[in-house]
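Possible regression after last week's pipeline update?

I re-ran a chain I had predicted before the update to compare outputs. Posting the input and the new output here so someone can diff against the archived version. Not blocking, just want to make sure nothing changed silently.
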Amino acid sequence: MSSALRISGGAFGYGHAPALVGVDIDVEPGQAVALIGPNGAGKSTLLKGVLGLVPLLAGTMDILDRPRAQADRSSLGYLPQADDLDPEFPVSLEQVVLMGRYRSMGWLRGPRRADRAAVATALETVGLASRARARFGTLSGGQQQRGLLARAIAANPRLLLLDEPFNGLDQTNRDALIETLQALKERGVAILVSTHDLELARLVCDRVLLLNGSQVAFGDRDAVLTLENVQRTFREVQVELDQHTFVTPGHDGH
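New output (post-update):
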């Protein structure tokens, strides 16, 4: 596979109104790309566009070396910004992660050895193997987030899409998630991660896509994350940039 995701002249939107235009990116296997921009910039729109949940209004998109219409979306993993799984539902962490195998299992048969092995590997990857039998609702918020990531990677995706996965995590869970993403990259998984956290981008991501309704800049992390580029992206926001952080208002995601 020469490219995990390639978009040329991409425009995405709802109905006939584009919410994001001018996207030109090429993501290789084993690369992580940070999507950075203010609220409403189009980060979630882009992720949903790759998933086929938001129409591609212009341009071309190849996913895992196949044109968009022929893409095998079973090879995509997705962690949304908000999940509708009720934490009070009496289900174990292991059962939640097994949900990530349903597409390959089908609804009418039980899990096979390969499914259980994939679940065990996913839990090991996110550092929660010892909590497999714990009821999901008894886990901390950060552990639940890592469990949902395990659900996304249990299907062995080749392209993983993450929408603000680090929101609200304490340092322990944050560090565990960073280690998980590094391990996935080493396996050749390509990652697109929406974030407003510059430290995350510098620790995990190889490339950065700056967005504000259109593509502001895309390329290698250190070349793109300059004060000038970040100020162009957050046009109406005071931005402070140093080696580790930039400061912007809170994020609600679009």
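Follow-up from reviewer: compared with the archived run. The CA atoms of residues 210 and 216 lie 5 Å apart. Marking as no regression found.
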